[in-house]
Amino acid sequence: AELHVREFVIEAKPLKRLCRTHQTITVNGQFPGPTLEVRNGDSLAITVINRARYNISLHWHGIRQLRNPWADGPEYITQCPIQPGQSYTYRIKIEDQEGTLWWHAHSHWLRATIYGALIIYPRLGSPYPFSMPKRDIPIILGEWWDRNPMDVLRLAQFTGAAPNVSDAYTINGQPGDLYRCSKPETLRFPIVPGETVQLRLINAALNQELFFTVANHQLTVVEVDSAYTKPFTTNVVMLGPGQTTNVLITANQRPGRYYMAARAYNSANAPFDNTTTTAILEYVNRPSGRGQITPVFPVLAGFNDTATATAFFNRLRYYKRAPVPLQIDENLFFAVGLGLINCTNPNSPRCQGPNGTRFAASMNNVSFVLPRTNSVMQAYYQGIPGIITADFPPVPPVQFDYTGNVSRGLWQPVKATKAYKLKYKANVQIVLQDTSIVTPENHPMHLHGYQFYVVGSGFGNFDPKRDPASFNLFDPPERNTIGTPPGGWVAIRFVADNPGAWFMHCHIDSHLGWGLAMVFLVENGVGQLQSVQPPPLDLPRC
Ligand code: C2O
Fold first, then answer.
1. Contact of 245 with 224, CB cutoff 8 Å
2. Residue nearest to atom 3 of ligand 1 (CA)
3. How far does the centroid of ligand 1 lie from the alpha carbon of residue 349, in Å?
4. I need a surface site. Which of 84, 320, 383, 520 has the fewest CB within 10 A?
5. Of all atoms in ligand 1, which is nearest to the CA of residue 512?
6. Ligand 1 site: residues with CB under 6 angstroms?
7. How confident is the model at residue 136 (pLDDT cuts 50, 70, 90)?
8. In angstroms, what CA-CA distances link 4 with 42, 138, 141, 374?
9. CATH class, range 1-127
10. Span from the CA of 446 to the centroid of ligand 1 (angstroms)
C-alpha cells in the first residue's frame, strides 16, 4: 500500500468559456481539478491551502472514511471550513473500496468549479469481475455559469427565488462545439477501430440530472458509485448529481467521428438549461476524405423522459449476491421535497419565489440549518450542547397523499438543526418518499460515510403492507447516491457500522441550500465515540 501526498491550492484563475473570461476558483489552477489515482488499501494526505477569498472544505464523495469522519469534509458537519489563508490536511485511508469516485468542494456553490475524479484501482494482482480494457477515460459532466456561481447563489439567497440556471453543461470542463466560442476546445477522444475502452462517467453538475449517450455505440454498464454491477448494455446512461457510472464502449462502427453528448433530464416543471454538451469520439486511421467531417449526432432521451431514467435505474444489479441486511432494527420513513415559506410581506424583495414566498426544502418537515459556531462532529465528539439536537423525526409529523396537488398548508417546513441517532451496527431501512410539494421531482439523495443497497422503488405513495414484498434482497445495486423518483419512493438498506456524524442530503445544490438535509449520529456500541479517531491537530476552527 502506498501513501499519496498531494497539495491542493485553492486559488482564483482567469478562465475563458463561452466567449468570456472570468475569475474562477480552481485547484492548482486546473479546471477540472487534478485526478487522483490510487489503489484499494492506499492512503492519501492532501493538504488543502486556501488562497481564495471564500471559506472552503473538500469532500471525498463516496469514500467511507471508516472511524475517521474528520476527513469527510462537509462544512459545519464534520469540520469548520478552511478560512482564507489557512490550510488543512485530509488524511484518508481507502478500506475495501474500488472504482470511480470523485472529490468536490462542500461549501456553498464552490463545487461548481472545484471537483475532480478519484479513481481507486483494485489491490495489485486483484482481478476485476469483468474483462477490464487497457484504457480508461474519466468523463466528468458539469455545469458552467457565465459569471461567478457564488454570486448566482448569493442573489438567490437574497430573493428566495430559484437561482439562475447554468449557461452550459460541460464535459471535462468544456462546453463543446454546440455552444458559442467553444469549437476549438471541444474535446476529442481518439479510439482505435476494434478497441474497447472504459469511460468513467461522473455527474459533477450542481443542479441537474443528465442523460449521457454516444452516437451509434452501445454502452456496457459495469459499475456504479464504486460498486460493480452485472454488466448490461444500453444506449443511454442516466446520472443524478453525485452519481458515477462506468461503461465499456467498443469501437465497432464504421470508422468516423461520433458525438458523445449529455443533456438534462428535468423531472420538474422548473426552468432548466435545455442545451447539450458534446465531445467527439474519433476513430484513428479512418480513411481520409471518405470519413464523416461532421460527427454523427446521437438520439438523446427527451428532457422529461422519466420512463427512460426509471428503466435505466431498474436494470442495475449488484454483480454478485449482496449481503443485504434482512432483519431491520430501524425502519425510517423520510418525506423529502420542496416547500414554500410564506412571507408577511409578499412584495418584499426577499420574497421573490412563487406568489411572494421563499423557496425551502425539507426532510420530514425539517429544513436543515447548518450550525455556524462549530461542526456537528466536534460537538458530538466533545459533548458540546447547543449545536444540534438528536430529535429528527423517524416519520413525517403529518401523513398525507404524496402524489400531487398537495395543499401547502399541510407542509410549512420548520428550520432547525436536527440529527437522528443510530446504534452501532443497527440494520437500517429508509424509505425516501418524494412529497410532490411545489412539483414532483427526482431528488438524488446522498449519504456520507456509507454505501447502501437500493432494495426497491416505485411511483405513488409507498405502501408499507404491499411494497416490501417486491424488494430485491438478493442482488440490489449498491450506491452512495440514489434518486427518489418524481412522485415516488425508493427504499435503501445499510448497516450502521461507521461511527460518527454523517450528512444525508439532496445532491442538487439549490435544494441542499434550501435545507433538504439531515444528519445521522452513529454510536460505537457503548454510546460513546472512543473508537472514532481523535480529531487531527490542524482541524480548522470556526
Ligand atoms: Cu458529493 Cu455531501 O456530497
1. yes
2. 61
3. 31
4. 383
5. 2
6. 59, 61, 74, 104, 106, 242, 446, 448, 503, 505, 507
7. very high
8. 8, 20, 26, 30
9. mainly beta
10. 6
| 133 pLDDT higher than 90 | yes
Ligand 1 centre and the CA of 515: distance in Å? 14
pLDDT at res. 267: 81
Compute the distance between CA of residue 455 and CA of residue 430 in angstroms, rounded to an integer: 10
Multiple choice CATH, 130-319, 3.40.50.300, 3.30.70.370, 2.60.40.420, 3.40.710.10: 2.60.40.420
Average pLDDT, the chain: 94
Q: Do 540 and 84 touch, CB atoms closer than 8 A?
A: no
CB atoms under 10 Å from CB of 467, counted, come to 17
Q: What's the residue count for the chain? A: 542
Residue with more model confidence, 225 or 403: 225
The alpha carbon of 49 and the centre of ligand 1 are apart by a number of angstroms equal to 20
Residue range 150-155: mean pLDDT, rounded:
96
What are the sequence ranges of the domains in the chain?
1-127, 130-319, 330-522
Give the pLDDT confidence of 282-301 residue by residue, as tens digits.
Answer: 999 766 655 557 899 998 88
Ligand 1 center to residue 378 CA distance, Å? 19
